[in-house]
């Protein structure tokens, strides 16, 4: 199960994300500032790798890429403070995992 909130936090938070998209097996994300991307936090979500190409971030997730991208888009509508609480184990009733 992936901790989607860790992916968003590792990307530098909601405010740092410009675009969430996918191909068949990867999340393709564009960020505003790649210096804010924390690969170790993204990897703590349960993904096996994260590829950073300047502002383009590719995260291999398998054939569930479209479903995960849609879930990330939904999560990105929340506030960063809510995601931090989820990442620390709070707000379990709202926790979103795939």
Task: Write up what this structure looks like.
The chain has 98 residues and is of the alpha+beta class. It is 32% helix and 20% strand. It is built from four helices and four strands; from the N terminus they run αββαββαα. It has helices at 4-10, 39-43, 65-75, 80-87; strands at 17-22, 26-31, 51-53, 56-60. It has a four-stranded antiparallel sheet, with helices on one face. A hairpin with a 3-residue loop joins strand 1 (17-22) and strand 2. Helix 1 crosses helix 3 (65-75) and helix 1 crosses helix 4. The chain is globular. Residues 92-97 have low confidence and may be disordered.
Strand order of the largest sheet: 1-2-4-3
Rg on CA atoms, Å? 12 Å
Compute the number of helices: 4
* Pattern of helices and strands: HEEHEEHH
Brief rundown of the structure:
The chain is α+β, with helices and mostly antiparallel strands. It has 4 helices and 4 strands; from the N terminus they run αββαββαα.
Summarize the SSE layout with pairings.
Blueprint: H1 4-10, E1 17-22, E2 26-31, H2 39-43, E3 51-53, E4 56-60, H3 65-75, H4 80-87
Antiparallel strand pairs: 1-2, 2-4, 3-4
Helix pairs in contact: 1-3, 1-4
Keyphrases for this structure?
98 residues, 4-stranded antiparallel β-sheet, alpha+beta, disordered C terminus, 32% helix
């Amino acid at each position: 199960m992936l901790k989607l909130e860790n992916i968003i936090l590792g990307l530098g938070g909601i405010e740092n994300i410009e675009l969430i998209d996918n191909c068949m097996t990867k999340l393709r994300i564009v960020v505003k500032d790649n210096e804010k991307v924390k690969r170790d936090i993204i990897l703590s979500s349960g993904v096996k790798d994260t590829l950073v190409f300047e502002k383009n971030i590719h995260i291999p997730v398998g054939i569930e890429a479209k479903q995960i991208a849609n879930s990330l888009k939904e999560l990105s509508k929340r506030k960063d403070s809510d995601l931090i609480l989820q990442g620390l184990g709070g707000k379990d009733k709202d926790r979103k995992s795939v």
